[in-house]
Design goal:
The chain is an alpha/beta fold and about 425 residues long. The protein folds into 2 domains: about 5-45 and about 100-195 and about 330-410, FAD/NAD(P)-binding domain (3-Layer(bba) Sandwich); about 70-95 and about 195-325, D-Amino Acid Oxidase, Chain A, domain 2, CATH 3.30.9. About 30% of the residues lie in helices and about 30% in strands. It has 11 helices and 18 strands. It has helices at about 15-25, 50-60, 95-110, 185-190, 215-220, 265-270, 290-305, 310-315, 360-375, 380-405, 410-420, and strands spanning about 5-10, 30-35, 45-50, 70-80, 80-95, 130-135, 135-145, 150-155, 170-175, 175-180, 195-210, 225-230, 235-240, 255-260, 285, 320-330, 335, 340-345. Strand 4 (about 70-80) and strand 5 (about 80-95) form a beta hairpin. Helix 2 (about 50-60) packs across helix 9 (about 360-375), helix 5 crosses helix 8 (about 310-315) and helix 7 runs antiparallel to helix 8. The two termini are about 30 Å apart.
């Protein structure tokens, strides 16, 4: 099987863009349909860990030369106010969702931004690539006669009554890659079970520019992934490139995530997820809508005297924290219509965010598809590999969360499940 001559990618986030870049470099003509109407997507100043598969893909296909990540050499643990109870060498590459997205856009469709002001020219043998923002997919069809896929889409923001906006466009391609995330429309169309399960805790998140912090605090968080364990909740902190892709000390961002248990359906949950306009959000309250009163109560209870001064400074200097529910979506079948439609990234399986490896799964899906096209493995073998990796990562992320929160019994059960033979 060779790479398809044409492909439609549903979802223009990191997962979709990694697939688009690989296909474009293989000579495939690619169309990306993204529901978000903003040409740049909302800026996500949030940290992501990028693993070996992402780095391998960028090394092979990136033509911008922009550093995608900041390397961290150590893993450190603080216990409440004790700053270093554990310190061990552990290499990780930490990136910024927004700058990684813009590096990929520059490569895929030549999008210019602060991160890559002058996108590189295409390479010899590249296919074409088009990124259509503001398009909502309303159907996928498989034409058994010639084995092609049809994708139907409309303007995402169109009001139901507007004839023009509701006009259905039809695109045809040899292959469709569904990279439309945890709330995947395509999973729904395929009637794949889509039970997103709440993990029992939420993640408060934020970033602060290094030059807003004292030199001691920056030094304390530099070159490491830092865990701070509190009674019943915990923080992960690390340094990432700025939203404009700068890896220069002073302009980089200190990124933190605070995992905090909140019972589902509780008054506390409703209070946290009700924004400044009184609107209750389902899974995320963006930084500009988070109720400052809710945040100040949360900070007051834990931060000033319950943590290290370095962490207290970072959290109190954060201008626009945001909050999101943590959960997971178990993997299902990975490909449909004789392998012409493949689910990738979070649309296939979503893990709790502890290891920050969502982009690593997405990149692995790219490398696996490449092996299918080169004839090294069959589509069925590739799907099996994807399912096993997802099952393993699901359990590992659960384990990380349980250990950090001090849920020892849950951690023990998960550890036993991870060690059982069918996960290897």
């Amino acid at each position: 099987m060779t790479p398809p001559k044409s492909a439609i990618i549903i979802g223009g986030s990191i997962s979709g863009l990694l697939q688009a870049l690989q296909l474009k470099r293989a000579g495939t003509d690619v169309l990306i349909l993204e529901q978000d109407p903003s040409p740049t997507r909302a800026s996500h100043e949030s940290g992501v860990s990028i693993g070996p598969s992402v780095l391998a893909l960028l090394k092979k296909y990136d033509a911008t030369g922009t550093p995608p990540a900041i390397p961290a050499g150590f893993l450190s643990v603080a216990w409440q106010t004790r700053p270093r109870v554990l310190n061990t060498a552990w290499h990780h590459d930490m990136s910024n969702w927004g700058s990684l997205y813009l590096i990929l856009r520059a490569n895929v469709d030549g999008f210019a931004s602060d991160v890559v002001p002058y996108p590189p020219p295409g390479r010899k043998g590249d296919g074409t690539a088009e990124y259509k923002a503001g398009r909502r997919v309303v159907g996928v069809e498989f034409d058994r006669g010639d084995g092609a896929m049809n994708v139907l889409h409309v303007e995402a923001e169109a009001s139901r009554g507007s004839r023009q906006g509701m006009e259905v466009k039809r695109e045809r391609a040899e292959m469709v890659i569904a990279a439309d995330g945890v709330h995947s429309t395509i999973r729904r169309f395929l009637q794949v079970p889509t039970t997103w399960t709440y993990a029992g805790y939420i993640a408060w998140r934020g970033t602060v520019r290094e030059d807003q912090l004292s030199p001691e605090t920056v030094r304390y968080f530099s070159d490491r992934l830092n865990f701070t364990l509190l009674a019943g909740s915990y923080f992960i902190t690390y340094i990432i490139p700025s939203e404009t892709g700068s890896v220069e000390p002073g302009r980089r961002l200190v990124n933190w995530v605070w995992y905090y248990p909140v019972p589902e359906g509780s008054v506390a949950m409703d209070t946290i997820f009700t924004d400044i306009n009184g609107v209750l959000h389902n899974s995320t309250v963006p930084g500009d809508l988070l109720d400052p009163k809710v945040w100040s109560v949360q900070k007051r209870r834990y931060i000033s005297d319950g943590t290290t001064p370095h962490l207290a400074e970072v959290v109190s200097q954060t201008r626009r924290p945001f909050v999101t529910k943590v959960g997971e979506l178990e993997a299902s079948a990975a490909s449909y219509f004789d392998g012409r439609l493949v689910l990738v990234g979070d649309a296939f399986a979503t893990f709790r965010s502890h290891l920050g490896l969502a982009s690593e799964q997405a990149a692995r899906h790219c490398l696996q598809m490449d092996r299918v096209w080169s004839g090294e493995i069959s589509q069925a073998a590739r799907d099996r590999e994807a399912r096993l990796y997802a099952a393993k990562l699901l359990l590992l992320n659960r384990l990380m969360g349980f250990l950090g929160l001090g849920w020892w019994w849950s951690a023990l059960k998960t550890g036993l499940a991870y060690a059982s033979p069918h996960h290897h």
